[in-house]
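Shipment paperwork, digital attachment
Item: protein structure file
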Amino acid sequence: ERKVTWSDKLDDVLTHRILGVVVFLLLMFVVFQSVFRWAEPLMGWVEAAVGFAGETVGAWLPEGPVHDLVVDGIVAGVGGVLVFLPQIMILFALIAVLEDCGYMARAAYLMDRLMTRVGLSGKSFIPLLSSFACAIPGVMAARVIENPRDRLTTILIAPLMSCSARLPVYTLLIGAFIPPIDYLGGWVPLQGLVMMSMYLLGMAVAVVVAWALKGTLLRGPTPPFVLELPSYKIPSLQLVVMRMIDRGWAFVRRAGTLIVA
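Attachment content:
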């Protein structure tokens, strides 16, 4: 008889139909709250640096079309991309931690039950999760999906995830209409709950669209999802930092250069 290890006991909770979903939602809430709280001062520094760069470059150029193109176009355009870089890097760092410790495979297994009902497999989970930072790396991550119909469906619903570019709009509306009330002794802010509900709304709409696509234009059998659950381990700091920098640079290189062009 095989001995039951602590890993087996942990899997009983993390892959449970009910408890696993509760743990997943709690982890996602902590991740998103961390992204917002940790990235706020960094975003302020980036905005200040972009403003300083615009003023410095603008002082060298005489007033005219070239001045407006460089200051209001190139510098401000690239700055509009860079201001979201702290959130994207923090989010990818947290995702890398969850992947490296072995939890993300459990989450993919857990989400496979939901994905199967809309005609997708658990392989679509990681690209859709990446789309919360930006739809560009989310679409790029969809290349690991072998089935062309599933790959196209995942690419089409990836932009429905609430990416970082929508955060300023959410923040403005929440700050204007949602009072700063805290629950559980200040641990659960109401504004954070509303922010998370916006993300959940995007996920719900994506599920409906995926179900409609797989039932009409992209009809096809749902491929089996075979996944070997890795063992739990302490995340590698070097791997997390390298993945965070790689994803952040890919975002800047692809999104920033397109805006400059």
